[in-house]
Amino acid sequence: MNIYKIENIITKDGYIGSETNDNSRWRQHISRLRRNCHHSIYLQRAFNKYGEINFLFSLIETGINDNKDLLEREQYYIDSEKSKYNMC
């Protein structure tokens, strides 16, 4: 299980999330962003404004073995990175 970040390379704003399968969440995010129906209106607006080419998906922590730890680590990064595109 992993923690990932979707970063706007122009503004450096980001979205933090977690996944249980490598890169499966990126495919879901990019598909929804391309269809203009992403759940994060902040990320969607930035994607529409800056374009797909200006967003980078990266894993920021890998190898987490427990769901509880995964959620705790995800929240840690959301709080510490002050991720602008996360809604909650």
Task: Explain what the structure shows.
The chain is an alpha+beta fold and 88 residues long. Helices cover 41% and strands 23% of the residues. Strands 2-1-3 form a 3-stranded antiparallel sheet. Strand 1 (2-8) and strand 2 form a beta hairpin. The two termini are 21 Å apart. The model has no long low-confidence stretch (mean pLDDT 93).
Tag the structure with descriptive keywords.
88 residues; alpha+beta; 3 helices; 41% helix
In short:
The protein is α+β, with helices and mostly antiparallel strands and 88 residues long. The protein is globular and about 35 Å long.
Q: What are the low-pLDDT stretches, counting only 5+ consecutive residues below 50?
A: none
Helicity level: 40-55%
**Biggest sheet, in brief?**
3 strands, antiparallel
Mean of residue pLDDT? 93
End-to-end separation in angstroms reads 21 Å
Which structural class do the helices and strands define?
alpha+beta
Radius of gyration: 12 Å
Task: Report the principal-axis shape.
Answer: globular
DSSP summary, beta strand count = 3
Strand arrangement in the largest pleated sheet: 2-1-3
Strand content: 15-25%
Element string (H = helix, E = strand): EEHHEH
Number of helices: 3
